[in-house]
User: Fold these one by one.
Assistant:
Number 1:
Amino acid sequence: MANKQQFQLHSLLTEQRHPRSFDLSTRIAADTADGLAALLSVDEDISAALQGVADDPARLAALEHASREITRALRDGHRLYFYGTGSTGRLAETIESGLWRPFWQRTAASPAMAKIEARFPGLGERVRGEITGGDRALIASLEGFEDIPEIGRLQLQDNGIRPQDLVFAVTEGGETSAVIGTALAAADQAGADARRTWFVYNNPDEVLRPFERSRRVLDDARITKIPLPTGPQAITGSTRMQATTTSLYVLGVVLEDATRALLREVLTGDELAALGFNDAGIAERLRGFATIQRTTAAAAQKLAAWTDREAASYAAGRHATYLATRALMPVFVDVTERAPTFRLSPLDAVDAVDAAERRSWIQVWTPAADGAQAWQALLHRPFHGLDKALYLPPFENGIDDPYLREAALRGLSNAGDEQQALYDLSFSDANLQRSGPQAGDTGALILLGDEAHADANRRWLQAFAAAGAEPVLVSVSARPLASDVLADVAALPRPVPVIAVTVPQRDAFELNQTIALKMLLNAHSTGVMAKRGRVVGNTMTSVQPGNLKLIGRATWLILSHVNAVLETPAWRTARGSTAPLTYAEANAVLFDAIEQRRSAPGASGLPEVELSVVAVLDALKADRPIDWNAAVTQLRAGGLSRYLAPYATATGAPGR
């Protein structure tokens, strides 16, 4: 309370509850399609925000300036560095490995490639996307890293970023220490050159100014700011959703616009069109997001069959497996982001998984012979871990806060190149034997863009059907599904749900299709977790308080749920007026709950937020100290949603 006030972030716009999804948990329990429609409707906020940018001469000019600077940097042989933490770190890696590198792999087969390479050699290697903690953090964030500004500076150095390279530091909150450290380090490296460093964020400046670290960036004339506020998230504080979708789309549009301008210097209009480029400018592309959003939202009814099927598999103790080729990066990102949001086990490591005792509910596969080839398919480059020789001395000697230093050293022990061998994403004989499909499992074959239907996809469908698992086909493309795909699905012994979304506008980086798939996956995975009780209302009450930001978020969730109940007519009628819980009290209870979860056998596996809410309300009802054993019994008997049900108002949720 005294020393970490800069991590009490509940004032941020991205941490507020969205009214459209306020009662998500009850809506989706009653009608899956209705709940998914509510989730997807929040993406309309992105359309409105992007329309606002397109209509704002100053903000549009900033994006057009960024495009010109990217063109200039690439023409002059420099690199682009995109950096983020957590969901924005996965955004950065998506820009490199999900958009940029796949485009150049497709272009390599084009007759135009020789002309491009002659003028701009090595262009496909000029974009680098990095997540705080390196590629291992794609699996699961490394504890404590995001709270350390120094790691941003170290990773900038580790990736060989030079003063003439462009740096895009992306943070949905606008306050992430590691991203701010990157922006300030890049500005120091470049001196007074304001064309070099860009700061992209999703909260209004006025709500960020109370945070000293944010002010340092906002007031630094060497850093160009790109504010992209969209409002609250569909799940409170889950910035993997609308905030990250907004930033990914905007940065993808700017990068594609800059690349088109560069290639126009060597290619004809017909050659550019053959690569997928069109004449739409940045403003037109931003306005065009609304069409993508409406097309995606229209799939809610079909999406519900998949959401119901996967939720039922988990309820029965079964698993899900996703197979993806072109869609591998957006699929992998959505799957790995579920773990911290909904307190799931991260992907199983190959040396820790037992077929009978798998901890992760889900796995992601891609057609590849082994784990090394699968990582190459995901990243389209070598795996990059953190070298202890570079990071260990600054961590030991340069981090004054003992909590952060200890957390950073723990994280560093799991961040090296050796981590690649621990995770095998291949659709291979070894993985089939180790964790292949079983009766009651769910499988999802995900196709993206103009992806050819490969033999591997056919084998995968047949293997799942033969095992008694329940496959689903999901496709996002500029064209309707090919007849051979539909024929393979029709040949299976049982009906297979098909979710096919056609996004007709073609673009060189396949950004539109990637964004549509991201929104579908986000809604689906959130819907599954809501149906499994990992969401109360539209709050992530299962969140794991594993860093300072999440401790602050968990505290705020306890505070808001308890005080919402205290304000309801049901509570006031039964017990009169009760003084609201304070932030300090909620924080103290949270730390007690963390200790209970560690040490009390009965509390093991229960989310700290839910345990705290029940414990506080029980204590207030009985006018006695907290009884953790009683809270455990209450929570295990029916979950937090059922416990709070008597206090639901006529509008469907406490305190609405």
Number 2:
Amino acid sequence: MDWLFAPFEVAFVQRALWGGLLVSCVCALAGTWVVVRGMAFLGDAMAHGMLPGVAVAALLGGNLMLGAAISCTAMAAGVSLLSRGKRFAPDTAIGLLFVGMLATGVIIVSRSQSFAVDLTGFLFGDVLAVRAVDLWYLVAALGVALVVAVLGHRAFVALTFDSRKAHTLGLRPKQAHAALVGLVTLAIVASFHVVGTLLVFGLLIAPPAAAVFWSNRVPVVMAVAALIGGLSTVGGLVISWHAGTAAGATIAAVAVGSFFVSALISAVRERVGRVGMVALAAVPLVGCGATEVPVVEEAAPHGFVAGAEEMSEAQTRVVVADGAGAVRVIDLLSGEITAVDAGSAESVRAQPHSSAPAGATPSPSSGGEEVSTVGAVGDGRFAYLSSGASVRVVDSGAWTVDHGDHRHYYRAPIREVGVIAAADSGATPGPGAGSVSPAPEGGGAGGPGVAGAYSDAAVASVVLESGASILFDRPALDGGVARAQRRIEGIAVPFAERIVVADSAGRVEVRGRDGAAGQAQAATCPQPKGQALTRRGVVVGCADGALVVAQREGDFVAEKIPYPAQTSDRASAFTHRPGSTTLTALAGRDGVWTLDIRKKAWTRTAISDAVAVNTAGEGSPLLVLTRDGVLHGIDPVTGTQTTRTALIAGPVEGDPVISVDPERAYINDSRARTVHEIAYNDNLRVARTFSLDIAPSLMVETGL
């Protein structure tokens, strides 16, 4: 039975289960009356009519459930108003509003490219993204639905069979009808987040329709419908987990399937009678009593990480720091801002849409002692902050484990891990850190900052601007201990269970994780500076181009991608979206470089006073921030500007960063103490602005 229980060992599937069970109960209370009174077309129209409200709420950054409620209420009011006329039947009014509301919603969504990708989520839901707060909303909705169903039961029954009789009995049929429509609206609004606006009709209709085959008493039909809906939720989640199908759609499909199964059983029962049904049901049980149930040892579910909570989507966060060492972590999903000072992780406020306060006072630096922070890099989970003499490690509490054909997303508490001395690779343990074992390799002092950070399951490498690298014990970091294994004189990047090293002499070799000499590459990399890790291999910037070290048929090969012409404006620091094979870099004061690893080609785009550049990958615009604070969107093929946004007031201070993920870009504004979220596929629209109490002069994004 491990196949049945394994999916529910994951936290987000457990929340999906509870969400589905609560939705099943709400839909059973409302859906029973929809089936009994023949209101199916109205229910379907109201389910589709939610889309405009949901789309507008998403566009404005508001609450989706509130937008759905407003749109659904407007739909119900419109149906009631148009149905008063005698020129056409009520279903004509329902049909007109049904198509009109759906078309309006699709038009609203299609007007914004950044929200067009969310249309699938609006229509089909995302049950695996149900949060704890959503469960409380569903509990409240179930409580209200129970009250309405109990208090209005007598009036609903009378209204179903004879509205004139209900009026004679003083049951107020018009008010009862309004209450019933409100109950249906409540069920639809509460359920759309789980299965979406299109599939919510399945949970609203299918379980009650199936329950009608088992009883003709309304309370019993409601109870059986809730049971069928709950079983459909369990079955849909199990099938979705093992088959890799959409969870919400699978739940709705199982619910509809339960109707046909109930209809089939009912037909067989009418032919063979109750005794025959009992006999047929007993046949599969013969011999089961003699079968021994094997003892199955419980194993950790696939992708399990001790002490972490697995989530259904990437838990993206941004780590920012000021020059004095104060650190803040922005949760990009919730908008919550967390302070990390002296190893603590105390939430200071949640302001997802606030603007920067004028004259805000910066917080003290970590530990109460000001230590100048000059650089920050990240490896997807940890942020590494450099003060020149040491490297401070902060756990952002968000990361992704990529298994190639699928990914696991995790979240954990935000914390400071410790500090590593850059000069000798020794370590000063931070809060929660254990003993540290310095293991220097080579000598020399640490550089003034950090240039990059890369990690795999065993080792994390922090590349210093001096050209040396510090290797960390990655499992120790995961456990909250900052421990340096050794120092390597050269750029060191973990790749394919090896470490690719390019030293100052231009030699490139692939070493084992233990640092032992490995496979030397024939190609050289003179004056190595700048590196990146892509799906196609490790990229190292050289004086004459870029060197790509890849693995082919179990062997490692190095290939040079030379510059199109001799240039003094070489690329010395690469930026790109994690996983992308399209890299960008500044090209002096009057241009930017684009390096396409797949096409093995450099492209230089002319633009004056560029201070930061990045791109989401092939087919996406180049994002270039110039010294005057203007963000430019540039066509990577033609080099022409497609759009621009005046983002930062006045000349840009410090070294701004453009961080890009699959949906948004993030740019730090030190003077205004803000971080801007940019919808780069929607004409560089500023989607959100996070205000801070520190100047975010350094920034890295994690969770990807």
Number 3:
Amino acid sequence: MDLDTLRDADFKLLDDAVKDWSTLVGTLEGLRKDAAGRLRGRAEKARWGGVNAKVSKEFIGKTAAEFEDAHTQATTVHKILSDTAGELKGYHRQLVTALEGGRRKGLKVVGHEGGFTVSSDAPPQERGSTGRDADAGAVALRDELERILREATKSDDSARAVLRALADQSKLGFSGASYGDRDSAAAAIAKAEALAEVARKNPRDVTTTELAAFNATLATYRNDPLFSETFARNVGPKGALVFWAGIADPFQAAFDPARGEQAKQLQKNLGITLGQATLSDSAGMTKWKKQMIALGDQRLEIDDASNPTGFATMSNLMRFGDYDDRFLNDYGTKLLAHDKQVTGDGFNLWVSNANQSDLNFWGQKNDRGRDPVTGFLEALGHNPDAATEFFGAPDLASDPDTDGYKVNEHLTYLTQERDWMSDSSLQGDSKIVAGRDSLGHALEAATTGFAYDTDIKDIIAAGGGQRTAETAAVMEQVSYLYGGEKGPEMLHKQPELADSLGKMAGAYIDDIDYSLSGIGDHMRDEETFPPKYQGRANFTEAGAISFLSVLGQNETSHGAVTAAQHLYTLSLMDANPPSNEANIERAHDGLMVGAEARGILDHSRVSQAEADFKADSEEANKSLGRSADWIKAGTGILVGAGVAALPVPGSTAVGIVIAPIAADTAGAVMNTFIGHGVDTAVDGNEKKPTDQTQLTRNKFYEKGAEDFGSACNAYGSGNPEAEKAIRDRDWVKEIKGAYYGIGGPENKYRGHAPHED
């Protein structure tokens, strides 16, 4: 900024802009509230049908979000303009004051292109002995003017840079980046530029102390949009990978525990930072994302970490952070296409002696990070929308040659075709395949709408339900695969997925029950099992039975689904208190379907225990005893509006079952389960080995029947009308028939037989 520009500045246009943006912020605030409350709120409550269920509702949701972002961006722009206007006015006043002070001292200032000059008004012959003083005054005035102009230029330039960066964040629509003032936004950009200089150094030249400071800055700014994009673009896609691989090289970090710990934190901080950067739609980041994907199958051409590929490096960074959905889907599609070329016939190039690029510092005993598919699936597990899209149901209408049911090719490959290998270290368990566990995480996110490790309290705070027609379409495919002919073998060979499959089925237990409520696929009971979202999952009756019969075979998945099923059945009774005949009828129907579902699960569990432990009935006894402990989940339940979250029974893995409930909150009947202790009476203690399994099976079934009896008692207790209905209609006999009938002889013809090696 030159002297004449600041001295002669007319701030009216800038003041008008500040005023206009202030008005716009107020207007957008009203529109934002209307969009969130009226537009989105009514859209969520409306009963959409046909194409509108997907297109219109989704469009309205995105439109409401755009109003939110528009208000955020306008607020930030207003604050930046207001700050800049105030500062420039201040510098203008300082400049005028300095010029006036110089004039009074006989100093003349003349501005010209490229700068200004300061001189004395008095001719040289008249200056006399004061000449040296005049020269000193001119130098002081020059320095003061240069300082003022330098600061004004800095203010003007930083405002321009920040405003341009904000505008570039979103090519279409608005940016959600929010800053309280111009200086905080400018500081974020400056910090990113400084950190990028460090990241461009040879990683081996970065000291542990320097790396610790690097991590501290990343931890502070990793979710800042302007910081993240500036850093990512300045370092470049390959630069970011080279820096991480060099820092993470185990042959460097292993000899220095402090550096190894800093590398571990860098993996997380850098992953989150790059993820935030990918959310920008700027032309620069669009190019960056394409370049990163193009680097996937290429070697980095470095001496560190076995010269890894782009996929092997980036997949370990993306285990953390919120990434752009399109980027993840494009990245994953190319990764799997390449993966098919380097794996197969019992061989996996990633997990072999040829690859020693251990680039994962989290859970590394069982997951060294050599298999990039594992890291990518972890990314999907933390990015639900991207996961739902990646495993989305194929569009059959666009494929006229399709005959029958079609499954997403990514899902088919990862569940049925890929050769998975354990990537454990010498200290880990070689029987554990971390990649399959990560596949379960990705599918959880794809079907529930939540990151697989979302905190239970956050789920309740978010209102619980995030299911859509799209998430349901993924769930239908999962049920089709694992409830199909190969389902028992798949679950048996993929034990790492058991907890995830149980959680997914628990999240859709209302739709599973609805599928069981009719005769075949006709006359389903929507009054008792109303949809909780548009486009609910359709499992078909045969499909629901088959899926439950497979999940019942595994202790962990059996426990998760059983807990969710029991909770949902109890909630149906709370949602239909015995105040009128219609409610009592719905409670009865809910109990009947619940008993049928529980019967399928329990019979499957008993049959599998007997198949697994033919020669050792004591072990079968213990197995069924563990399966009966699903009731422990009742002690950890949190209930919100229409949803309950409970720990996965029998699993040490991080995770919870997100179970839909029919009532808004826990009522008297549900409270018979919440906080309930463990019933240890299931364990048999008979001395005859030949009798133990049969006795345990009997007690196991008796416990199941007892759970429904307890529910009936809680529902009818103290209500004569309900007690009379229970007696007159002989609920006990009907429910026992549903539970034992489906769970016993009928199961020979419905559902899958136990898996046998």
Number 4:
Amino acid sequence: MKHMNSEVKEERTSNKKRIDLFLVPIVLIAAFLNLFKIWTDEYANAYYTAAVKSMLQSFHNFFYASFDPGGYVTIDKPPVVFWIQTISAKIFGFHGWSVILPQALAGIGSVLLLYVLVKRTFGVWAGRFAALAMALTPIVPAVSRTNNIDSMLVFTLLVATWMLFRAVRTAKFGWVLAAFAMIGVAFNMKMLQAYMVLPAFYVFYVVATKITWKKKIAFLTTATALMLAVSVSWAVVVDSTSADKRPYMGSSQTNSVLELAFGYNGINRLTGNTSVTGSSHKQPAQAQQQTASSETKQTSNSNAESSQSSNQSKSSSSKKMQAPGGGNQNGMFNTGNPGPFRLFQKGLSDQISWLLPFVIFSIVGLFAGVKFKGPYTTKQKESLFWLAWLLPVAVFFSIAGFFHQYYLIMLAPPIAAFAGAGAVALWSMYKQRNGWKSWLLPGGILTTAALQVYIMSPYVSSIGVAPIAGVGALGVILALVLAVRKERKNAVTNYLGVAAMVVLLAMPAYWAMTPIIYGGNSMLPAAGPDSSSGMGGPPSTATNSNQSGFNGMQPPGSSSGNSSSNNQMQPPSGSSNGGQMQMPGGSSNNGQMQPPSGSSNSGEMQMPGGSSNNSQMPNSSSSKSSSSKRKSGGMNAEVNKKLLNYLTKNNTGEKYLFATTDSTSAAPYIIETGKPVMAMGGFSGSDPILTVSKLKAMIKKGEVKYFYLSGMGKGGQSDVITWIKENSKEIPSSKWQSASSSSQQGPSGNGTLYEITLK
């Protein structure tokens, strides 16, 4: 132990004398992957970008993270990340890239933090490998290139980890408090997801500190109390504020932050059960998942401005599609089917699992010979920390009822840490010919190469056979050569080891670049040759190669404009509704998806927030379809100028430019104009915010008079929608609908503009 401590001190001293030049290219790689071309995404995730636009306008909107400038409803997440994004937009101006920038910098910061964390204990080469593995984990740059929360969340948790490690090294209780308080800050970024690392923090502190059990319990209890206090601080302030003095808490059913935290953003993620109607009844998991989160609702047909061609109609007449999770589908949104090998299934493995076999071999090597009762070395203690982070999070994603691919960034730090620490440890065992342990290195290389071949195999049509065969052949050859050269110590063997690591990182590096090469998706970020679709997973077998995700149905965020117009969706296998599936707000009919009640899309299935292929939207326009900048934003993020001009001209002092059912229609107008637009049902259109009596009062006060409806009145909004239609004057489409947009697709169905004035 004394010898190891002296080595650590010597290394720390040497590190202060010079900069690690090997780290520079790793940071440059991370910067390129996270920053390059983020300026091409004008809207980013439009739901969150609209909130930043609103938060820039007043402290009231800023504090509550209001979705709209009028302070009607909040977004569905806590405000901390959006506070940071708003500050960035204030400094650099309001742009898509300025709201993405904090997450991109957080992605780079995570690479640096992991280097620091691993290097101190496992050595400088372990730190380098760990940092490089983190930078090249495909889902890391895919998420960091958007204004979604997860990249900032991981960075914050790594800061907390650094504080915890420092607390153990210095034996100062203040750092323990700081570490747990930082987790409380992370809670105010994405709620219960921040608590996924708590097992690692508790286990490590108990094992690593040399104090009495009485002090351990007292310190951890105090730190946990502080964490909880920080966690609920904003929620308590909001929930204790009178409802009429603040926005409605978006995506909650009771206008409560705590309910949002422990329900919608908490337990429901594990169970997959969500309430979309304001009641407590539970729907089939696949149906729930389609309305369960903001990342899902904002579906995109970013190039939907292109006209419907004749070959579309030909393909549409013969296609029927199974619902995600049914038949041979790879689970909802390519998150696989729950089970112990879920992380090795298509759609998830290519986001995070490239190095998992090597990590498993590394764990075996790092813990070889460890006795349960100790004593433990510093390396073993920190290995235990990363293991206690990895296992619970991996178990969650293996059994969870609902999540998105980009949530997997939570696994990136422990995987990268073990890849770095394990590479050095296994190499040392190999070089020392340490019995059976010397076989762990070639074994890890061989099995990892085999998994990578498996991961790439569904993408043969996209990437070709050569890289797949190359990785497989080189992996096998290098593993075998290393196995037969175990008794030799020379430079050639060293080069073989380096070559093996290069081979294992080559395809993750390519995958990490796919959001740059093929374009990314800001609502459902995922890496891979179909990264712009936002669905991840292998290409579909549909006739049109651009139709990926749901086997031919244009997925959320898809940039293809060539989807069929009459595709039908079959219910998932095992449906409890007699083979029929009922969409939220809709009805089933002989196994075919029907639109929500009141929709004018006759016979067409409409995804919640997704586009019916013959739909019209006020934000449709073909004028910028070939623009070099993407307005993907989760919708046809183009504002109908004729509609905007009509609403502006005829506004007689109303607070809201217009009202609509959900955030999809409202967001682009908020972004473009900065004017209040009311999303009556909140994010998904299902929040029980508005009643008929409340709406009447608002109209009488002159707060709103125009309503854009597209048949998406779900849950508690159905009565409101019905009342609007019965008591309004329909505005002829010729007055507000431009000729170029009348035939365009849109995410919320065929729309109608209404006007209501009450005395």
